[in-house]
Write a structure and sequence with these properties.
The complex is a heterodimer. By secondary structure, chain A is mainly α. Chain A has two domains: 54 residues, no CATH class; 32 residues. Chain B is mainly alpha-helical. The radius of gyration of chain B is 66 Å and the shape is rod-shaped. The chains are: A mainly alpha, B mainly alpha. The interface between A and B is large, with 37 and 39 residues. Chain B: F-type ATPases have 2 components, CF(1) - the catalytic core - and CF(0) - the membrane proton channel. CF(1) and CF(0) have multiple subunits.
């Protein structure tokens, strides 16, 4: 019977809500670790949506939509002045 | 690449197991990413990518909300979210909204109209790439096969080396024999020459002795004929001749 896995190695979806704080503290925050996490995320996305035989529109359109949302968030302080009402 | 399979297989396998065991099994599947042997038989590419609805939202989101809210749940969430953003003016409607609306209309129209053609074209390009790679692989396999057959043929040829050596041995024996006989002939010729020389020497010597002796005898004989004997012999010859002439006259 396999040994119970450490909290450090569980995936995010399997972590219980109470353990979330400890789990987050255990993650690897060194530059190498962050780079590894970004690479893993990129490879996950890439292998799921782009590195296939018949890739669809969703692969790039999700990236573009994310970029649109991010740029809107960055320019919100500038867009705020175009609001029609002052109080909501 | 194997990570994709593992990522897809592991959750499915884990959901099948009871929860306490799932946590332990996960630990053993992790090292599969990092060993070198995982690259060797490359798994083929999946046919289609992850499902995306309306081109923007992955299908997993809808499946995630389905047990609790049914089919319309995510759409209600989307509508509520949109109304909230608009009413609180977190999303501000200004000139950019109009521009975005026009652009999006054109884009969506273009995609709907030309999407399948572009997809077919891209598929054709991909097919060509895959076909050329496959052709290269097959060609490499073919060349290796022919190389293997050639090698086997060479091995078969190498088995005949005993015949080759026999022929060479025969050649060498013949050469030796020829050489031996040549030398034999040479020895015979040389010996014969020497013997002939000796024989010729003896003959010459005897002949010279003979000649010399004859000459010496003649010389001595001629010397011994003194002048008186010569006169007497000449007179006798004349008498004889006269007698002969007389007999000859008488005969006539």
């Amino acid at each position: 019977l396999p040994v119970a896995v450490l909290l450090k190695d569980t995936k995010l979806m399997d972590v219980k809500l109470g353990q979330l704080g400890t789990w987050l503290a255990m993650r690897d925050f060194t530059p190498g670790g962050i780079l590894g996490a970004m690479r893993r995320g990129y490879m996950r996305y890439y292998n799921k949506y782009i590195n296939v035989r018949k890739g669809g529109l969703g692969g790039i359109s999700m990236v573009l939509a994310g970029y649109i949302v991010l740029s809107y968030m960055w320019s919100y302080s500038h867009v705020k002045h175009d609001r029609r009402r002052k109080y909501h | 690449m194997l990570s994709r399979l593992v990522l897809r297989a592991a959750p499915a396998a884990l959901r099948a197991l009871p929860p306490p065991v799932a946590v332990g099994v996960l630990h053993t599947t992790r090292p599969l990413h990092t060993t070198q042997q995982s690259l060797a038989p490359v798994p083929p590419l999946p046919e289609k990518g992850g499902e995306v609805r309306h081109g923007l939202i992955p299908e997993e989101f809808f499946q995630f909300l389905y047990p609790k809210t049914g089919v319309t749940g995510p759409y209600m969430l989307g509508t509520g979210l949109l109304l909230y953003l608009l009413s609180k003016e977190i999303y501000v409607i200004n000139h950019e909204t109009a521009a975005a609306a026009c652009i999006l209309t054109v884009i969506i129209y273009g995609i709907k109209k030309f999407g399948p053609d572009v997809a077919a074209f891209a598929d054709k390009l991909n097919e060509e790439k895959v076909a050329s790679a496959l052709a290269m692989k097959n060609e490499a396999i073919q060349t290796l096969q022919t190389a293997i057959e050639e090698e086997k043929k060479e091995q078969w040829r190498a088995e005949g080396r005993s015949y080759l050596f026999d022929a060479k041995r025969n050649n060498i024996a013949m050469l030796l024999e020829t050489n031996y006989r040549e030398r034999l002939l040479m020895v015979y010729n040389e010996v014969k020459k020497r013997l002939d020389y000796q024989v010729a020497m003896q003959n010459l010597k005897r002949q010279k002795e003979q000649d010399h002796m004859i000459q010496w005898v003649e010389k001595n004989v001629v010397q011994s004929i003194t002048p008186q004997q010569q006169k007497e012999s000449i007179a006798k010859c004349i008498l004889d001749l006269k007698a002969l002439s007389k007999s000859a006259h008488a005969a006539v």
